[in-house]
Amino acid sequence: MNRALRAATMGVLLLSPVALSACSAGQVTQTATQERDKTGSMAQVGDITLRQVQLAYPRGGAYEAGDDAELQMAIVNTGQETDTLVSVEGEGFGDAELDPGTAPVNASGLPAGTATVGGSGEIECAPDTTVFIGPDSDASITLTDLDEGLTTGQYVTLVLTFENAGEITVQATVATPSRALEREEGFDFHHEEGTNEGDEANTEVASGAGSDE
Predict the structure, then answer these.
(1) In which element (H, E) is residue 159 found?
(2) I need a labelling partner for 73 at 20 to 30 A (CA). Which of 50, 65, 129, 193 fits?
(3) Coil, helix or strand for 194?
(4) Are 113 and 140 within 8 A, CB to CB?
């Protein structure tokens, strides 16, 4: 009986690593198939999808309190009807200025933007069209008078309201720089070490001279 029990135990121990490695491989494979946007947040409501939502990288590396921040994103309308972005609200800034600018045109030739209404403006998204928002795009959304400073990695939470799709909440993170920034000159540790060694040598010479006397 003892030999049979020992043999069964050894069999379980030998098989356990195989079973564990098989489970691990399955988990890794499932994780590898998941995809997400490389930059910015994504959100969806109805036929409207927001992609790569972020605040433009500030010129000085950080936004200061009172600065304005440009919003960057792509608004995708996969529906069969035109929808309109009527407002952008949230905390941490004074107001949101919407400017449709020169509206892009979709595949059917219909304009994807509309003229400003009052002082705030509205941005129209034609069916089967992507409207790009940002400093280098036709349409723009500016968050004015930030309450406090923001730097890369920090975000503001926005609520965008569309005429048909309704409200959609998304986080707009401050973007990283589009190119590598030059690093400032580093601290010269060797110079400091040399100075300390010189001071020590001078101290030794002085102490030696004193002992001769």
Answers:
(1) strand 155-162
(2) 65
(3) helix
(4) no
Residue with tokens 């927001």: 50
* Residue linked to tokens 């069999």: 11
Residue 51 has which token pair? 């992609």
Q: Where are the domains of the chain?
A: 42-172
Please give the Cα distance from 145 to 139 (Å, whole number): 20
Q: Mean pLDDT, consecutive 10-residue segments, the chain of 213 residues?
A: 54 46 36 43 94 93 95 95 95 94 51 38 93 89 96 94 96 83 51 51 51 49
Q: Which two tokens stand for residue 5?
A: 């029990």
* Domain 42-172: homologous superfamily in CATH: PCu(A)C copper chaperone (2.60.40.1890)
Q: How many residues does the chain have?
A: 213
